[in-house]
Write a structure and sequence with these properties.
By secondary structure, this protein is of the alpha/beta class. The protein folds into two domains: about 140 residues, Rossmann fold (3-Layer(aba) Sandwich); about 170 residues, Dihydrodipicolinate Reductase, domain 2, CATH 3.30.360. About 35% of the residues lie in helices and about 25% in strands. The strands form two sheets. A nine-stranded mixed β-sheet has the order 14-13-12-11-7-10-9-8-15. Helix 4 links the parallel strand 4 and strand 5. Helix 1 packs across helix 9 and helix 5 runs antiparallel to helix 10. It is globular, with a radius of gyration of 20 Å. Bound molecules: nicotinamide-adenine-dinucleotide.
């Protein structure tokens, strides 16, 4: 039984706590949070011990795995403490706020005997997995262009409004669009160059809308777009991928979200939305421990995605194309 300690019981920590209940072979044992109201909520939700810091958790409780759900700039320090404590580590995306922090995290985890996995959850989202399989099976031929969208809900309200502080969150590109940057890398491999535009600096942080154009080394062109703009409505995601033989598209708002259009006709696939992708990514972590293998997303892999996201931020800043 893997005994789990969650550090950070905010939006994602609460989702992880629920998801751990669905992961066989694991048990949520303790929660740490620096905020008294979050600690009280954790105790009420799960009737578990709750402590004020990762240090107190390591000192007082016997855990096998630390699940890092604190704001992004704190990922490195909590991971360092977990590794010093010889624990397995699961850390939320993005790996870090800067390339330097990310590099240090890769170094910390390389050669480390316990497992370290990073939460790029889109790779565990069934519809995105199915689209990838269709693309890999050549259903729409050679990939040419991909267009993605993510957004549509309210601005995220985090601890001390940290999402509104660009130095902490990296804005909509680093915090939100990194999901699609990672998915596109998973589909098409290395990125050659990046150009991005954002409303940052021209509108309030809460109204950021961004567009990123990518060219992959294999020649595929990507357009990754997303928004923290507070237009009314539900959060949704969309993907269109055009290949030499047809188009595959996905819209999370549809009841038959995946649509493939080729000369052979139109094929619709119902998304198995009942599956919780957060539980699937945590299950992969537990299986990686049992099977003594790497989790699907290693710190090194997440560092490569971080590099693309930070290149997009650099492009926004300079107005120039950034070569990787
Ligand atoms: N994978 C996803 O879908 C997804 C979704 C949301 C957030 N995230 C990521 O998860 C991380 C957290 O985001 P969030 O939305 O949950 O933020 P949040 O502000 O809602 O929650 C963060 C929690 O950490 C606590 N905290 C802050 N400093 C701490 C410290 N030093 N020690 C212990 N606890 C501390 C806060 O009190 C708060 O409860 C970010 O890196 C974010 O990018 C991922």
């Amino acid at each position: 039984m893997i005994r789990v300690g969650i550090v950070g019981y905010g939006t994602i920590g609460r989702l992880h706590a629920q998801a751990w209940q669905e992961v066989p072979g694991s048990k949520l044992a303790v929660v740490a949070d620096c905020d008294a109201a979050s600690l009280e909520k954790a105790q009420n939700d799960w009737n578990l011990p709750a402590v004020a810091s990762v240090d107190e958790m390591l000192e007082k409780y016997d855990v096998d795995l630390i699940d890092i759900c604190v704001p992004t700039p704190l990922h490195e320090s909590v991971m360092r403490r977990a590794i010093e404590g010889d624990k397995h580590v699961f850390c939320e995306k993005p790996l870090a706020r800067s390339l330097e922090e990310g590099q240090r995290m890769v170094e910390l985890s390389s050669g480390y005997q316990q497992k370290v996995g990073i939460g790029h959850v889109v790779r565990f989202t069934p519809a995105y997995q199915k689209m990838r399989q269709s693309i890999k099976d050549g259903e729409v031929g050679e990939p040419g262009v991909i267009r993605t969208f993510r957004g549509g809900s309210q601005f995220p309200m985090g601890y001390q409004n940290w999402f509104a502080d660009f130095d902490q969150s990296g804005g909509v590109i680093l915090d939100l669009l990194i999901h699609d940057l990672d998915y596109c890398r998973w589909l098409f491999g290395d990125v050659e160059r990046v150009y991005a535009q954002s409303t940052r600096g021209r509108a309030e942080e809460q109204l950021e809308h961004a567009m990123i154009v990518l060219r992959f080394k294999n020649g595929v062109i990507g357009h990754v777009e997303g928004s923290w703009t507070n237009f009314p409505g539900q959060f949704y995601t969309r993907v269109e991928m055009a290949g030499t033989n047809g188009l595959i598209s996905f819209d999370s708002r549809s009841t038959e979200p995946i649509r493939t259009m080729t000369a052979a006709g139109v094929r619709l696939q119902v998304g198995p939305t009942a599956v919780n992708p957060y539980a699937l990514e945590l299950l992969d972590m537990v299986e990686a421990i049992k099977e003594d293998r790497e989790p699907l997303i290693t710190p090194h892999d997440a560092y490569e995605t971080l590099n693309v996201a930070l290149a997009a931020l650099e492009s926004v800043r300079t107005g120039q194309v950034v070569k990787l």
